[in-house]
Protein backbone atom coordinates (compact mmCIF):
# COMPACT_ATOMS: atom_id res chain seq x y z
CA UNK A 1 0.00 0.00 0.00
CA UNK A 2 1.38 3.43 -0.84
CA UNK A 3 1.58 6.32 1.56
CA UNK A 4 -1.84 7.61 0.57
CA UNK A 5 -3.43 4.33 1.61
CA UNK A 6 -5.07 3.87 -1.74
CA UNK A 7 -3.23 1.24 -3.68
CA UNK A 8 -1.20 -1.88 -3.39
CA UNK A 9 1.46 -1.27 -6.01
CA UNK A 10 2.88 -4.78 -6.32
CA UNK A 11 0.08 -6.29 -8.32
CA UNK A 12 0.88 -8.88 -11.02
CA UNK A 13 -0.06 -6.58 -13.90
CA UNK A 14 0.16 -9.19 -16.63
CA UNK A 15 -1.86 -11.91 -15.02
CA UNK A 16 -5.16 -12.61 -16.71
CA UNK A 17 -8.33 -13.01 -14.76
CA UNK A 18 -10.15 -16.29 -14.87
CA UNK A 19 -13.09 -15.88 -17.22
CA UNK A 20 -14.28 -19.45 -17.52
CA UNK A 21 -17.67 -19.76 -15.91
CA UNK A 22 -19.02 -23.24 -15.60
CA UNK A 23 -21.90 -22.91 -13.20
CA UNK A 24 -24.78 -20.55 -12.69
CA UNK A 25 -26.81 -22.10 -9.93
CA UNK A 26 -26.89 -19.18 -7.50
CA UNK A 27 -27.18 -15.43 -7.70
CA UNK A 28 -24.09 -13.56 -6.53
CA UNK A 29 -24.13 -9.78 -6.27
CA UNK A 30 -20.43 -9.44 -7.13
CA UNK A 31 -18.29 -10.93 -9.90
CA UNK A 32 -16.68 -14.28 -9.37
CA UNK A 33 -13.12 -14.46 -8.19
CA UNK A 34 -10.83 -17.32 -9.10
CA UNK A 35 -11.34 -19.13 -5.84
CA UNK A 36 -15.10 -18.96 -6.21
CA UNK A 37 -14.90 -20.34 -9.74
CA UNK A 38 -12.66 -23.22 -8.67
CA UNK A 39 -14.96 -24.02 -5.78
CA UNK A 40 -18.09 -23.98 -7.97
CA UNK A 41 -16.36 -26.07 -10.62
CA UNK A 42 -15.35 -28.65 -8.06
CA UNK A 43 -18.89 -28.78 -6.71
CA UNK A 44 -20.28 -29.21 -10.21
CA UNK A 45 -18.03 -32.16 -10.98
CA UNK A 46 -18.89 -33.69 -7.60
CA UNK A 47 -22.58 -33.52 -8.45
CA UNK A 48 -21.83 -34.96 -11.88
CA UNK A 49 -20.00 -37.88 -10.34
CA UNK A 50 -22.91 -38.58 -8.00
CA UNK A 51 -25.34 -38.52 -10.94
CA UNK A 52 -23.21 -41.02 -12.80
CA UNK A 53 -23.09 -43.31 -9.78
CA UNK A 54 -26.86 -43.16 -9.36
CA UNK A 55 -27.33 -44.35 -12.91
CA UNK A 56 -25.06 -47.36 -12.58
CA UNK A 57 -26.96 -50.62 -12.58
CA UNK A 58 -25.95 -54.10 -11.44
CA UNK A 59 -25.94 -55.35 -15.05
CA UNK A 60 -25.27 -53.70 -18.40
CA UNK A 61 -24.02 -50.67 -16.50
CA UNK A 62 -23.01 -48.62 -19.50
CA UNK A 63 -26.24 -49.21 -21.37
CA UNK A 64 -28.21 -47.82 -18.42
CA UNK A 65 -26.28 -44.53 -18.38
CA UNK A 66 -28.76 -41.68 -18.86
CA UNK A 67 -28.76 -38.09 -17.73
CA UNK A 68 -32.32 -36.97 -17.68
CA UNK A 69 -32.70 -33.23 -17.08
CA UNK A 70 -29.72 -31.07 -17.88
CA UNK A 71 -29.93 -27.41 -16.90
CA UNK A 72 -29.00 -25.19 -19.82
CA UNK A 73 -27.14 -21.93 -19.64
CA UNK A 74 -27.39 -19.55 -22.57
CA UNK A 75 -24.41 -17.25 -22.86
CA UNK A 76 -23.70 -13.95 -24.49
CA UNK A 77 -20.74 -11.62 -24.58
CA UNK A 78 -21.67 -8.09 -23.47
CA UNK A 79 -18.71 -6.70 -25.39
CA UNK A 80 -20.79 -7.28 -28.51
CA UNK A 81 -24.22 -7.58 -26.89
CA UNK A 82 -25.09 -5.52 -23.85
CA UNK A 83 -28.84 -5.66 -24.00
CA UNK A 84 -30.43 -8.36 -21.83
CA UNK A 85 -33.75 -7.80 -23.54
CA UNK A 86 -32.29 -9.30 -26.68
CA UNK A 87 -31.18 -12.31 -24.66
CA UNK A 88 -34.69 -12.65 -23.34
CA UNK A 89 -35.95 -12.57 -26.90
CA UNK A 90 -35.47 -16.33 -26.58
CA UNK A 91 -37.90 -16.51 -23.71
CA UNK A 92 -40.46 -14.27 -25.34
CA UNK A 93 -40.45 -15.80 -28.80
CA UNK A 94 -39.94 -19.40 -27.73
CA UNK A 95 -41.64 -19.60 -24.32
CA UNK A 96 -41.95 -23.38 -24.30
CA UNK A 97 -38.22 -23.76 -24.72
CA UNK A 98 -36.80 -20.77 -22.95
CA UNK A 99 -38.64 -20.38 -19.68
CA UNK A 100 -35.87 -18.50 -17.95
CA UNK A 101 -35.41 -18.85 -14.21
CA UNK A 102 -32.85 -16.14 -13.67
CA UNK A 103 -30.23 -13.82 -15.07
CA UNK A 104 -26.75 -13.42 -13.63
CA UNK A 105 -23.86 -11.23 -14.56
CA UNK A 106 -20.48 -12.77 -13.82
CA UNK A 107 -17.38 -11.06 -15.09
CA UNK A 108 -17.66 -10.55 -18.82
CA UNK A 109 -20.35 -13.22 -19.18
CA UNK A 110 -24.09 -12.88 -18.91
CA UNK A 111 -25.67 -16.19 -18.01
CA UNK A 112 -29.33 -16.86 -18.63
CA UNK A 113 -30.46 -20.00 -16.84
CA UNK A 114 -33.11 -22.04 -18.62
CA UNK A 115 -35.35 -24.63 -17.08
CA UNK A 116 -34.51 -28.24 -17.98
CA UNK A 117 -36.30 -30.40 -20.48
CA UNK A 118 -34.73 -30.03 -23.95
CA UNK A 119 -32.51 -33.10 -24.09
CA UNK A 120 -34.28 -35.96 -22.38
CA UNK A 121 -31.53 -38.55 -22.93
CA UNK A 122 -27.76 -38.45 -23.13
CA UNK A 123 -25.67 -41.55 -23.75
CA UNK A 124 -21.87 -41.77 -23.96
CA UNK A 125 -19.91 -44.23 -26.08
CA UNK A 126 -16.21 -45.04 -26.23
CA UNK A 127 -14.14 -46.66 -28.95
CA UNK A 128 -12.86 -50.12 -28.14
CA UNK A 129 -11.29 -52.52 -30.63
CA UNK A 130 -12.62 -50.45 -33.50
CA UNK A 131 -16.18 -50.42 -32.18
CA UNK A 132 -18.20 -47.88 -30.24
CA UNK A 133 -19.67 -49.30 -27.06
CA UNK A 134 -21.65 -47.58 -24.28
CA UNK A 135 -19.52 -46.39 -21.40
CA UNK A 136 -19.86 -44.65 -18.08
CA UNK A 137 -16.30 -43.30 -18.35
CA UNK A 138 -17.20 -39.80 -19.46
CA UNK A 139 -13.57 -38.67 -19.57
CA UNK A 140 -12.73 -41.14 -22.34
CA UNK A 141 -15.98 -41.02 -24.28
CA UNK A 142 -15.63 -40.32 -27.98
CA UNK A 143 -19.31 -39.95 -28.87
CA UNK A 144 -22.44 -38.62 -27.21
CA UNK A 145 -25.94 -39.52 -28.40
CA UNK A 146 -28.72 -37.09 -27.53
CA UNK A 147 -32.50 -37.31 -27.65
CA UNK A 148 -34.43 -34.06 -28.04
CA UNK A 149 -37.51 -34.26 -25.85
CA UNK A 150 -40.83 -34.27 -27.68
CA UNK A 151 -43.37 -31.55 -27.04
CA UNK A 152 -40.96 -28.62 -27.13
CA UNK A 153 -42.09 -25.99 -29.60
CA UNK A 154 -40.92 -22.56 -30.62
CA UNK A 155 -43.08 -19.67 -31.74
CA UNK A 156 -42.33 -17.22 -34.52
CA UNK A 157 -43.18 -13.51 -34.26
CA UNK A 158 -46.21 -14.28 -36.44
CA UNK A 159 -47.27 -16.88 -33.84
CA UNK A 160 -46.57 -19.91 -36.03
CA UNK A 161 -45.62 -22.94 -33.97
CA UNK A 162 -42.79 -25.31 -34.92
CA UNK A 163 -41.43 -28.35 -33.07
CA UNK A 164 -37.85 -28.25 -31.84
CA UNK A 165 -35.85 -30.89 -33.69
CA UNK A 166 -32.31 -32.18 -33.65
CA UNK A 167 -31.54 -29.97 -36.65
CA UNK A 168 -32.09 -26.91 -34.47
CA UNK A 169 -29.52 -28.14 -31.96
CA UNK A 170 -27.06 -29.02 -34.75
CA UNK A 171 -27.52 -25.59 -36.30
CA UNK A 172 -26.89 -23.93 -32.94
CA UNK A 173 -23.67 -25.84 -32.32
CA UNK A 174 -22.46 -24.97 -35.79
CA UNK A 175 -22.99 -21.27 -35.13
CA UNK A 176 -21.44 -21.01 -31.70
CA UNK A 177 -18.44 -23.12 -32.69
CA UNK A 178 -17.55 -20.40 -35.17
CA UNK A 179 -14.82 -18.27 -33.50
CA UNK A 180 -16.13 -15.15 -35.23
CA UNK A 181 -19.45 -15.68 -33.52
CA UNK A 182 -18.58 -16.82 -30.02
CA UNK A 183 -14.87 -16.35 -29.27
CA UNK A 184 -15.50 -17.19 -25.61
CA UNK A 185 -16.74 -20.67 -26.50
CA UNK A 186 -13.69 -21.92 -28.35
CA UNK A 187 -13.84 -24.88 -25.98
CA UNK A 188 -16.54 -26.22 -28.30
CA UNK A 189 -14.14 -26.28 -31.22
CA UNK A 190 -11.51 -27.95 -29.06
CA UNK A 191 -13.83 -30.69 -27.83
CA UNK A 192 -16.29 -31.24 -30.67
CA UNK A 193 -15.09 -33.00 -33.78
CA UNK A 194 -18.42 -33.35 -35.53
CA UNK A 195 -22.15 -32.95 -35.00
CA UNK A 196 -24.57 -34.99 -37.11
CA UNK A 197 -28.18 -35.98 -37.27
CA UNK A 198 -29.80 -39.40 -37.20
CA UNK A 199 -32.71 -40.98 -39.09
CA UNK A 200 -34.87 -40.04 -36.13
CA UNK A 201 -35.41 -36.24 -36.39
CA UNK A 202 -35.22 -35.96 -32.61
CA UNK A 203 -31.81 -37.61 -32.28
CA UNK A 204 -28.30 -36.31 -32.89
CA UNK A 205 -24.73 -37.39 -32.25
CA UNK A 206 -21.81 -35.29 -31.05
CA UNK A 207 -18.35 -36.68 -31.72
CA UNK A 208 -15.49 -35.56 -29.47
CA UNK A 209 -11.88 -34.80 -30.31
CA UNK A 210 -10.73 -35.88 -26.88
CA UNK A 211 -13.05 -37.15 -24.22
CA UNK A 212 -16.02 -35.38 -22.69
CA UNK A 213 -14.37 -34.08 -19.55
CA UNK A 214 -16.17 -30.76 -19.85
CA UNK A 215 -19.30 -32.00 -21.51
CA UNK A 216 -21.55 -30.00 -19.20
CA UNK A 217 -19.78 -26.82 -20.34
CA UNK A 218 -20.13 -27.95 -23.90
CA UNK A 219 -23.90 -28.09 -23.46
CA UNK A 220 -24.13 -24.44 -22.43
CA UNK A 221 -26.05 -23.17 -25.41
CA UNK A 222 -29.42 -21.79 -26.36
CA UNK A 223 -31.18 -23.05 -29.46
CA UNK A 224 -30.84 -20.90 -32.60
CA UNK A 225 -33.23 -21.29 -35.51
CA UNK A 226 -31.70 -20.57 -38.89
CA UNK A 227 -33.89 -19.20 -41.67
CA UNK A 228 -37.02 -18.94 -39.58
CA UNK A 229 -35.19 -16.95 -36.92
CA UNK A 230 -33.54 -14.62 -39.41
CA UNK A 231 -36.84 -13.88 -41.10
CA UNK A 232 -38.48 -13.46 -37.73
CA UNK A 233 -35.96 -10.81 -36.77
CA UNK A 234 -36.64 -8.93 -39.98
CA UNK A 235 -40.40 -9.23 -39.49
CA UNK A 236 -40.32 -7.88 -35.96
CA UNK A 237 -38.54 -4.66 -36.88
CA UNK A 238 -40.72 -1.60 -37.02
CA UNK A 239 -40.32 1.45 -39.27
CA UNK A 240 -38.50 4.08 -37.25
CA UNK A 241 -38.08 7.80 -37.92
CA UNK A 242 -34.80 8.91 -39.44
CA UNK A 243 -32.99 10.67 -36.62
CA UNK A 244 -30.06 13.05 -37.01
CA UNK A 245 -26.88 11.67 -35.52
CA UNK A 246 -26.26 13.36 -32.20
CA UNK A 247 -22.48 13.07 -32.25
CA UNK A 248 -22.43 11.50 -28.79
CA UNK A 249 -21.28 8.00 -29.52
CA UNK A 250 -23.98 5.85 -31.03
CA UNK A 251 -26.88 7.36 -29.12
CA UNK A 252 -29.72 9.30 -30.66
CA UNK A 253 -31.27 11.69 -28.19
CA UNK A 254 -34.83 12.15 -29.36
CA UNK A 255 -36.08 13.82 -26.19
CA UNK A 256 -34.74 17.22 -27.23
CA UNK A 257 -34.62 16.98 -31.02
CA UNK A 258 -38.18 18.22 -31.66
CA UNK A 259 -40.48 17.36 -34.55
CA UNK A 260 -41.46 13.71 -34.88
CA UNK A 261 -39.16 12.78 -32.04
CA UNK A 262 -40.89 15.17 -29.68
CA UNK A 263 -44.21 13.64 -30.70
CA UNK A 264 -42.90 10.21 -29.72
CA UNK A 265 -41.81 11.47 -26.31
CA UNK A 266 -45.11 13.28 -25.78
CA UNK A 267 -47.09 10.17 -26.66
CA UNK A 268 -45.04 8.00 -24.35
CA UNK A 269 -45.46 10.49 -21.53
CA UNK A 270 -49.21 10.54 -22.10
CA UNK A 271 -49.60 6.79 -21.81
CA UNK A 272 -47.21 6.75 -18.85
CA UNK A 273 -49.53 9.00 -16.90
CA UNK A 274 -47.78 12.35 -17.11
CA UNK A 275 -44.50 14.00 -17.98
CA UNK A 276 -42.94 13.18 -14.62
CA UNK A 277 -42.87 9.45 -15.20
CA UNK A 278 -40.63 9.43 -18.27
CA UNK A 279 -37.87 11.97 -18.58
CA UNK A 280 -36.00 10.96 -21.71
CA UNK A 281 -36.17 8.67 -24.70
CA UNK A 282 -33.18 7.54 -26.71
CA UNK A 283 -32.63 5.36 -29.73
CA UNK A 284 -29.49 3.29 -29.70
CA UNK A 285 -28.04 2.02 -32.95
CA UNK A 286 -25.67 -0.90 -33.43
CA UNK A 287 -23.72 -0.55 -36.64
CA UNK A 288 -22.61 -3.15 -39.16
CA UNK A 289 -25.07 -5.85 -38.16
CA UNK A 290 -26.63 -6.32 -41.58
CA UNK A 291 -23.78 -8.23 -43.31
CA UNK A 292 -23.39 -10.44 -40.27
CA UNK A 293 -27.09 -11.12 -40.14
CA UNK A 294 -27.15 -12.06 -43.81
CA UNK A 295 -24.36 -14.57 -43.22
CA UNK A 296 -26.08 -15.58 -40.00
CA UNK A 297 -23.00 -15.64 -37.82
CA UNK A 298 -24.54 -13.77 -34.92
CA UNK A 299 -25.41 -15.29 -31.57
CA UNK A 300 -29.14 -15.36 -30.96
CA UNK A 301 -28.92 -12.63 -28.36
CA UNK A 302 -27.16 -10.03 -30.52
CA UNK A 303 -29.09 -6.74 -30.79
CA UNK A 304 -29.87 -6.66 -34.49
CA UNK A 305 -31.96 -3.52 -34.60
CA UNK A 306 -32.65 -0.26 -32.83
CA UNK A 307 -33.52 -0.35 -29.16
CA UNK A 308 -35.85 2.14 -27.61
CA UNK A 309 -34.78 3.15 -24.13
CA UNK A 310 -36.99 4.95 -21.65
CA UNK A 311 -35.13 6.63 -18.84
CA UNK A 312 -37.29 6.96 -15.75
CA UNK A 313 -36.32 8.93 -12.64
CA UNK A 314 -35.34 6.68 -9.70
CA UNK A 315 -38.08 8.09 -7.50
CA UNK A 316 -40.62 6.75 -10.00
CA UNK A 317 -39.14 3.25 -10.04
CA UNK A 318 -41.53 1.95 -7.40
CA UNK A 319 -44.47 2.84 -9.64
CA UNK A 320 -43.37 0.10 -12.01
CA UNK A 321 -42.80 -2.69 -9.50
CA UNK A 322 -45.39 -5.39 -8.98
CA UNK A 323 -47.06 -5.09 -12.37
CA UNK A 324 -48.60 -8.36 -13.39
CA UNK A 325 -46.81 -10.07 -16.24
CA UNK A 326 -43.54 -8.12 -15.93
CA UNK A 327 -40.24 -8.74 -14.21
CA UNK A 328 -37.17 -6.61 -13.52
CA UNK A 329 -33.75 -7.93 -14.42
CA UNK A 330 -30.45 -6.20 -13.70
CA UNK A 331 -27.47 -6.07 -16.01
CA UNK A 332 -24.22 -4.11 -16.24
CA UNK A 333 -22.76 -1.91 -18.95
CA UNK A 334 -19.26 -0.61 -19.60
CA UNK A 335 -19.51 2.61 -17.64
CA UNK A 336 -18.34 4.29 -14.47
CA UNK A 337 -19.63 7.19 -12.40
CA UNK A 338 -17.07 9.74 -11.28
CA UNK A 339 -16.54 13.26 -10.01
CA UNK A 340 -14.04 14.93 -12.32
CA UNK A 341 -11.65 17.82 -11.71
CA UNK A 342 -11.10 20.56 -14.27
CA UNK A 343 -7.30 20.52 -14.41
CA UNK A 344 -6.91 23.38 -16.86
CA UNK A 345 -4.04 25.45 -15.36
CA UNK A 346 -5.38 28.58 -17.10
CA UNK A 347 -8.73 28.39 -15.32
CA UNK A 348 -8.32 30.49 -12.17
CA UNK A 349 -11.18 28.96 -10.19
CA UNK A 350 -9.86 25.41 -10.49
CA UNK A 351 -6.18 25.63 -11.41
CA UNK A 352 -5.32 24.35 -7.95
CA UNK A 353 -6.36 20.89 -9.20
CA UNK A 354 -3.62 21.06 -11.84
CA UNK A 355 -0.97 22.61 -9.62
CA UNK A 356 -1.53 20.77 -6.32
CA UNK A 357 -2.45 17.18 -7.02
CA UNK A 358 -2.34 16.48 -3.28
CA UNK A 359 -5.66 18.32 -3.00
CA UNK A 360 -7.26 15.98 -5.55
CA UNK A 361 -5.92 12.99 -3.66
CA UNK A 362 -7.18 14.33 -0.34
CA UNK A 363 -10.67 14.94 -1.74
CA UNK A 364 -10.71 11.44 -3.22
CA UNK A 365 -9.64 9.88 0.07
CA UNK A 366 -12.21 11.79 2.08
CA UNK A 367 -15.14 10.97 -0.21
CA UNK A 368 -17.14 8.31 1.61
CA UNK A 369 -18.08 6.40 -1.51
CA UNK A 370 -19.72 3.48 0.28
CA UNK A 371 -22.01 5.79 2.25
CA UNK A 372 -23.01 7.87 -0.79
CA UNK A 373 -23.82 4.75 -2.79
CA UNK A 374 -25.89 3.29 0.03
CA UNK A 375 -27.79 6.54 0.60
CA UNK A 376 -28.99 6.91 -2.99
CA UNK A 377 -28.97 3.61 -4.87
CA UNK A 378 -30.36 0.18 -3.96
CA UNK A 379 -27.29 -1.53 -5.43
CA UNK A 380 -24.05 -0.82 -7.23
CA UNK A 381 -20.41 -1.84 -7.44
CA UNK A 382 -17.71 0.54 -6.22
CA UNK A 383 -14.88 1.03 -8.72
CA UNK A 384 -11.37 2.38 -8.21
CA UNK A 385 -10.66 3.27 -11.81
CA UNK A 386 -12.25 3.99 -15.18
CA UNK A 387 -13.55 0.47 -15.78
CA UNK A 388 -16.35 -1.52 -14.25
CA UNK A 389 -15.08 -4.00 -11.70
CA UNK A 390 -15.86 -7.08 -13.78
CA UNK A 391 -13.93 -5.73 -16.75
CA UNK A 392 -10.83 -7.43 -18.10
CA UNK A 393 -8.96 -4.14 -17.66
CA UNK A 394 -9.97 -3.71 -14.02
CA UNK A 395 -7.10 -3.93 -11.52
CA UNK A 396 -8.25 -5.86 -8.45
CA UNK A 397 -5.14 -4.86 -6.52
CA UNK A 398 -6.25 -1.24 -6.40
CA UNK A 399 -8.40 -1.03 -3.29
CA UNK A 400 -11.01 1.39 -2.03
CA UNK A 401 -9.60 3.77 0.57
CA UNK A 402 -10.80 3.16 4.12
CA UNK A 403 -12.83 5.86 5.84
CA UNK A 404 -10.59 8.52 7.35
CA UNK A 405 -11.17 11.44 9.71
CA UNK A 406 -11.48 15.04 8.60
CA UNK A 407 -8.64 16.02 10.95
CA UNK A 408 -6.25 13.59 9.26
CA UNK A 409 -7.17 14.84 5.81
CA UNK A 410 -6.80 18.49 6.83
CA UNK A 411 -3.39 17.71 8.29
CA UNK A 412 -2.36 16.01 5.06
CA UNK A 413 -3.53 19.00 3.02
CA UNK A 414 -1.64 21.41 5.26
CA UNK A 415 1.57 19.44 4.87
CA UNK A 416 1.17 18.97 1.11
CA UNK A 417 1.94 22.53 0.01
CA UNK A 418 2.39 24.67 3.13
CA UNK A 419 3.44 27.78 1.23
CA UNK A 420 0.48 27.89 -1.13
CA UNK A 421 -2.29 25.73 0.34
CA UNK A 422 -3.41 26.46 3.89
CA UNK A 423 -6.45 26.95 6.07
CA UNK A 424 -7.26 30.63 6.61
CA UNK A 425 -6.84 31.89 10.15
CA UNK A 426 -10.06 33.88 10.02
CA UNK A 427 -12.14 31.98 7.49
CA UNK A 428 -11.27 28.44 8.55
CA UNK A 429 -11.62 27.56 4.87
CA UNK A 430 -9.02 26.19 2.52
CA UNK A 431 -7.04 28.92 0.78
CA UNK A 432 -4.74 28.72 -2.20
CA UNK A 433 -2.31 31.59 -2.72
CA UNK A 434 -4.38 33.55 -0.19
CA UNK A 435 -7.73 33.01 -1.96
CA UNK A 436 -10.54 30.98 -0.37
CA UNK A 437 -11.27 28.05 -2.65
CA UNK A 438 -14.82 27.76 -3.98
CA UNK A 439 -15.73 25.22 -6.63
CA UNK A 440 -18.80 24.84 -8.85
CA UNK A 441 -20.02 21.25 -9.35
CA UNK A 442 -22.33 20.87 -12.35
CA UNK A 443 -25.01 18.16 -12.42
CA UNK A 444 -27.79 17.38 -14.96
CA UNK A 445 -31.02 18.83 -13.58
CA UNK A 446 -33.05 15.78 -14.68
CA UNK A 447 -30.95 13.36 -12.65
CA UNK A 448 -32.36 13.69 -9.15
CA UNK A 449 -30.26 10.75 -8.01
CA UNK A 450 -27.07 12.53 -9.08
CA UNK A 451 -28.20 15.70 -7.33
CA UNK A 452 -28.59 13.72 -4.10
CA UNK A 453 -25.10 12.27 -4.49
CA UNK A 454 -23.70 15.73 -5.21
CA UNK A 455 -25.35 17.11 -2.06
CA UNK A 456 -23.80 14.35 0.02
CA UNK A 457 -20.40 15.05 -1.54
CA UNK A 458 -20.77 18.78 -0.83
CA UNK A 459 -21.50 18.16 2.84
CA UNK A 460 -18.54 15.85 3.11
CA UNK A 461 -16.15 18.38 1.55
CA UNK A 462 -17.36 21.16 3.85
CA UNK A 463 -15.97 19.15 6.75
CA UNK A 464 -12.45 19.72 5.41
CA UNK A 465 -12.94 23.41 4.63
CA UNK A 466 -13.91 23.20 0.95
CA UNK A 467 -16.79 25.28 -0.40
CA UNK A 468 -18.79 23.48 -3.09
CA UNK A 469 -21.64 25.10 -5.05
CA UNK A 470 -23.95 22.69 -6.88
CA UNK A 471 -25.31 23.98 -10.17
CA UNK A 472 -28.08 21.94 -11.80
CA UNK A 473 -28.40 22.42 -15.55
CA UNK A 474 -30.81 20.92 -18.15
CA UNK A 475 -29.18 17.90 -19.74
CA UNK A 476 -28.54 19.40 -23.18
CA UNK A 477 -27.01 22.56 -21.67
CA UNK A 478 -25.04 20.47 -19.20
CA UNK A 479 -23.55 18.46 -22.04
CA UNK A 480 -22.58 21.58 -23.99
CA UNK A 481 -21.07 23.24 -20.95
CA UNK A 482 -19.14 20.15 -19.88
CA UNK A 483 -17.85 18.66 -23.11
CA UNK A 484 -17.77 21.64 -25.46
CA UNK A 485 -17.25 24.79 -23.41
CA UNK A 486 -15.60 22.95 -20.49
CA UNK A 487 -16.95 25.58 -18.14
CA UNK A 488 -16.91 23.88 -14.73
CA UNK A 489 -14.69 23.27 -11.73
CA UNK A 490 -16.09 19.85 -10.81
CA UNK A 491 -18.36 17.58 -12.81
CA UNK A 492 -20.51 14.63 -11.79
CA UNK A 493 -20.87 12.32 -14.75
CA UNK A 494 -21.41 8.78 -15.98
CA UNK A 495 -18.90 7.82 -18.65
CA UNK A 496 -20.04 5.06 -21.03
CA UNK A 497 -17.68 3.30 -23.41
CA UNK A 498 -19.57 0.40 -24.96
CA UNK A 499 -17.21 -0.19 -27.86
CA UNK A 500 -13.73 -0.83 -26.53
CA UNK A 501 -11.38 1.19 -24.36
CA UNK A 502 -10.47 3.90 -26.84
CA UNK A 503 -12.93 6.46 -25.49
CA UNK A 504 -12.02 6.02 -21.85
CA UNK A 505 -8.29 6.24 -22.61
CA UNK A 506 -8.75 9.39 -24.67
CA UNK A 507 -10.47 10.89 -21.67
CA UNK A 508 -7.16 10.85 -19.76
CA UNK A 509 -4.68 11.14 -22.65
CA UNK A 510 -3.15 14.60 -22.90
CA UNK A 511 -1.99 16.14 -26.18
CA UNK A 512 -0.27 19.50 -25.93
CA UNK A 513 -1.71 21.04 -29.10
CA UNK A 514 -4.93 19.08 -29.37
CA UNK A 515 -7.42 18.96 -26.53
CA UNK A 516 -9.14 15.95 -28.09
CA UNK A 517 -11.49 14.08 -25.76
CA UNK A 518 -9.61 15.04 -22.61
CA UNK A 519 -12.16 17.61 -21.51
CA UNK A 520 -10.82 17.41 -17.92
CA UNK A 521 -7.43 18.66 -19.20
CA UNK A 522 -5.81 16.02 -17.04
CA UNK A 523 -2.15 15.36 -17.80
CA UNK A 524 0.14 12.61 -16.60
CA UNK A 525 3.17 11.63 -18.67
CA UNK A 526 3.24 8.12 -17.24
CA UNK A 527 -0.35 7.57 -18.31
CA UNK A 528 0.44 8.94 -21.77
CA UNK A 529 3.38 6.56 -22.01
CA UNK A 530 1.26 3.54 -21.09
CA UNK A 531 -1.46 4.51 -23.57
CA UNK A 532 1.16 4.71 -26.32
CA UNK A 533 2.45 1.28 -25.30
CA UNK A 534 -1.09 -0.06 -25.50
CA UNK A 535 -1.68 1.31 -29.00
CA UNK A 536 1.40 -0.53 -30.26
CA UNK A 537 0.75 -3.78 -28.39
CA UNK A 538 -0.86 -6.75 -30.12
CA UNK A 539 -0.66 -9.43 -27.43
CA UNK A 540 -3.91 -9.68 -25.46
CA UNK A 541 -2.25 -10.60 -22.16
CA UNK A 542 0.17 -7.69 -22.41
CA UNK A 543 -2.68 -5.34 -23.31
CA UNK A 544 -4.55 -6.44 -20.23
CA UNK A 545 -1.49 -5.76 -18.09
CA UNK A 546 -1.04 -2.29 -19.58
CA UNK A 547 -4.69 -1.43 -18.98
CA UNK A 548 -4.37 -2.47 -15.35
CA UNK A 549 -1.25 -0.36 -15.01
CA UNK A 550 -3.18 2.61 -16.40
CA UNK A 551 -5.94 1.89 -13.87
CA UNK A 552 -3.41 1.97 -11.03
CA UNK A 553 -1.71 5.15 -12.21
CA UNK A 554 -5.01 7.02 -12.57
CA UNK A 555 -6.06 5.98 -9.08
CA UNK A 556 -2.72 6.88 -7.48
CA UNK A 557 -2.80 10.30 -9.09
CA UNK A 558 -6.51 10.89 -8.33
CA UNK A 559 -7.25 11.70 -11.96
CA UNK A 560 -10.88 11.71 -10.84
CA UNK A 561 -12.94 10.52 -7.90
CA UNK A 562 -13.99 7.14 -9.25
CA UNK A 563 -17.29 6.11 -7.68
CA UNK A 564 -19.25 3.11 -8.95
CA UNK A 565 -20.84 1.16 -11.75
CA UNK A 566 -24.61 0.90 -11.41
CA UNK A 567 -26.62 -2.05 -12.65
CA UNK A 568 -29.29 -1.09 -15.12
CA UNK A 569 -32.79 -2.50 -14.84
CA UNK A 570 -34.69 -3.98 -17.75
CA UNK A 571 -38.44 -4.39 -17.50
CA UNK A 572 -39.32 -7.58 -19.34
CA UNK A 573 -42.64 -9.19 -20.11
CA UNK A 574 -43.01 -12.65 -18.66
CA UNK A 575 -46.26 -13.31 -20.55
CA UNK A 576 -47.21 -12.77 -24.18
CA UNK A 577 -49.65 -9.95 -24.84
CA UNK A 578 -51.53 -10.38 -21.55
CA UNK A 579 -51.66 -7.39 -19.24
CA UNK A 580 -54.37 -5.39 -17.50
CA UNK A 581 -52.13 -2.41 -16.88
CA UNK A 582 -53.45 0.51 -19.00
CA UNK A 583 -49.96 1.92 -19.55
CA UNK A 584 -48.61 -1.21 -21.22
CA UNK A 585 -51.90 -1.99 -22.94
CA UNK A 586 -51.89 1.39 -24.68
CA UNK A 587 -48.30 0.94 -25.78
CA UNK A 588 -49.08 -2.56 -26.98
CA UNK A 589 -52.21 -1.63 -28.91
CA UNK A 590 -51.12 1.75 -30.28
CA UNK A 591 -51.36 1.59 -34.10
CA UNK A 592 -48.45 3.98 -34.62
CA UNK A 593 -45.63 1.84 -36.06
CA UNK A 594 -42.95 3.92 -34.40
CA UNK A 595 -43.38 1.87 -31.22
CA UNK A 596 -41.07 -0.97 -32.02
CA UNK A 597 -41.48 -2.82 -28.73
CA UNK A 598 -44.92 -4.24 -29.46
CA UNK A 599 -43.74 -7.83 -29.73
CA UNK A 600 -40.78 -7.53 -27.39
CA UNK A 601 -40.83 -5.16 -24.46
CA UNK A 602 -37.29 -3.89 -24.76
CA UNK A 603 -38.03 -1.19 -22.24
CA UNK A 604 -35.03 -0.02 -20.25
CA UNK A 605 -35.39 1.76 -16.95
CA UNK A 606 -32.12 3.26 -15.79
CA UNK A 607 -31.33 4.89 -12.46
UniProtKB/TrEMBL annotation:
Concerning Gene3D superfamilies, the annotation shows: Dipeptide-binding Protein, Domain 1 (3.90.76.10), Dipeptide-binding Protein, Domain 3 (3.10.105.10), Periplasmic binding protein-like II (3.40.190.10)
Q: Which GO terms describe its biological process?
A: peptide transport
Q: Per UniProt, what is one GO molecular function of this protein?
A: peptide transmembrane transporter activity
The residues covered by the Solute-binding protein family domain are: 163-494
Domain of life of the organism in this record?
Bacteria
InterPro entries in alphabetical order: SBP_5, SBP_5_dom
Q: What is this protein called?
A: Solute-binding protein family 5 domain-containing protein
According to its UniProt entry, this protein's organism is candidate division LCP-89 bacterium B3_LCP
